[in-house]
Write a structure and sequence with these properties.
Number of strands: 20
Strand order of the largest sheet: 9-7-5-2-10-1-11-15-19-20
Largest sheet: 10 strands, mixed
Helix content: 25-40%
Bound molecules: guanosine-5'-diphosphate, 6-O-phosphoryl inosine monophosphate, magnesium ion
Number of helices: 13
CATH topology of the largest domain: Adenylosuccinate Synthetase, Chain A, domain 3
Distance between the termini: 7 Å
Structural class: alpha/beta
CATH superfamily of the largest domain: Adenylosuccinate Synthetase, subunit A, domain 3
Length: about 425
């Protein structure tokens, strides 16, 4: 089972970092293939808590080679900041590899991200402000800066000049901001060249060779299906392909090499930022989920919007990604609820939709049709096997599984590394 893709099945923060960490000791490479430091993964190992943004969660496991592949946008300042913080805590970060083809987030991307959001006013996306969208826009527009450009000062200068030519007009004339000097950006990027050089590699080649040699490679998605630029709730999405297809384009490993797709899904739903969210709760139950699940963003600290489990979204994710196994996380957060609702379909202006409507306006108007389940009050955080779960918790999992388009192979019952109930081996 050598190539495994792990992706978010909802709107992010499903616990991908924890799931990656769980598999870490059994894999050789962990590859980040999309997004950048907009991600926020909290991983709890014993008494230690790690918050990762740009680095793949596999960096926490000794022996794993973490890879930042071509599909990622890299803020180099953040990269070194994160590496230094981990080094200071005694971790070995020397194995990290970065694709020469990954794009770079510069100062002007961060600035443009923030000013465009401000100008959107009530239409804003609620981005993380990390420059992600503008960096991907430049990539698609063919005016991006790649990691390899940093090692050729002439090329770098030409490219930064070309990009800033346009952007300074925009910044000064439209957004009333100061112009950014070419030298400022070039000097900043060049200052990292020597430290960056040993990490930079042809990661597509290395990963294919690793698979040829029978190594196990885990592709860890950032963000999630409903934030995918093609398949999510556009325009309230991120700017990359966070679905399993992105693992191929974002790494240079062909689709026919992938053996398994693990979808991470919470036992309820959360979302950060703007956009439609049919099962969102504005009452005490939403507050309950936020407080019990500690639903505050790892990256921006924003309170996450909370709501019930949405089965059509899970089915949609199963279909788009080819999910073979779900990991259902945070089941423990539901403990103490007398009744739990699960969205089984939507009512859109009097018409029933069993699947996620393709038309965004319909999705905005979708009113959940719920099925109610009895809750449980027993503490489940120490449970290690499915049979030990309270009957109502088992019934909830089995009902959700039947609606979600793939089997639930593991269940999260707490934030810790060991707080997981495995029903089917995720790598076997
Ligand atoms: P990611 O972005 O998908 O990696 O997820 P985040 O790290 O942003 O958010 C998930 C949060 O839930 C983290 O704080 C995890 O420590 C925590 N977590 C993960 N799995 C579980 C679980 O099964 N139960 C509980 N209570 N917390 C969990
Ligand atoms: P992880 O990997 C949750 C959201 C932002 C915003 C939209 C666009 O931790 O699950 P961007 O800065 O990417 O242009 O913002 O996407 N967003 C996330 N929400 N989890 C994430 O990552 C996210 N990354 C981006 O809140 O709505
Ligand atoms: Mg997160």
């Amino acid at each position: 089972m050598p190539a495994i893709v792990l992706i978010g099945a909802q709107w992010g923060d499903e616990g991908k970092g924890k799931a990656t960490d769980l598999l870490g000791s059994r894999v050789d490479y962990v590859v980040k293939f999309n997004g950048g430091n907009n991600a926020g993964h909290t991983v709890v190992i014993g008494d230690e808590k790690y918050a990762l943004h740009l680095l793949p969660s596999g960096i926490l496991t000794p022996g794993v080679t973490p890879v930042i592949a071509n599909g990622v946008v890299v803020d180099i300042e953040v990269l070194f900041h994160e590496l230094e913080a981990l080094l200071a805590r005694g971790l070995d970060v020397s194995k990290l590899l970065i694709s020469a083809n990954a794009h770079v987030i510069t100062q002007y991307h961060r600035t443009i991200d923030k000013v465009t959001e401000r100008f959107l006013g009530s239409r804003q996306i609620g981005t993380t402000g990390r420059g992600i969208g503008p960096a991907y826009a430049d990539k698609i527009n063919r005016v991006g800066i790649r990691i390899q450009d940093i090692f050729d000062e002439n090329i770098l200068r030409q490219k930064v000049e070309g990009a800033l030519d346009q952007k300074n007009h925009l910044l000064v004339k439209i957004y009333n901001r100061r112009a950014i000097a070419v030298n400022e950006v070039v000097d900043d990027l060049l200052s990292y060249a020597d430290r960056l050089r040993p990490m930079v590699a042809d990661t597509g080649l290395i990963l294919n060779q690793a698979l040829d040699a029978g190594k196990t490679v885990l592709f860890e998605g950032g963000q999630a299906t409903m934030l995918d630029v093609d398949h999510g709730t556009y325009p309230f999405v991120t700017s990359s392909n966070a679905t399993s297809g992105g693992a191929a384009t974002g790494s240079g490993v062909a689709p026919n090499r992938f053996d398994r797709v693990i979808g991470i899904v919470k036992a309820y739903t959360t979302r950060v930022g703007a956009g439609p969210f049919p099962t969102e709760l504005f009452d005490q139950w939403g507050e309950f989920l936020r407080a019990n699940g500690f639903e505050f963003g790892t990256t921006t600290g924003r309170p996450r919007r909370c709501g019930w489990y949405d089965a059509p979204i899970a089915r949609y994710a199963a279909r788009i990604n080819g999910i073979t196994d779900f990991v259902l996380t945070k089941l423990d957060v539901l403990t103490g609820l007398e009744k739990i609702q699960v969205c089984v379909a939507y009512d859109v202006d009097g018409q029933r939709f069993d699947e996620v409507p393709v038309n965004q306006t319909d999705f905005h108007h979708a009113v959940p049709i719920y099925q109610e389940f009895p809750g449980w009050s027993e503490d489940i955080t120490g449970v290690t096997s499915f049979d030990e779960l309270p009957r109502n918790a088992r019934d909830y999992v089995l009902a959700v599984e039947a609606m979600s388009g793939s089997r639930i192979s593991a269940i999260g019952v707490g934030p810790g590394r060991d707080a997981i109930v495995v029903r089917h081996d995720l790598l076997g």
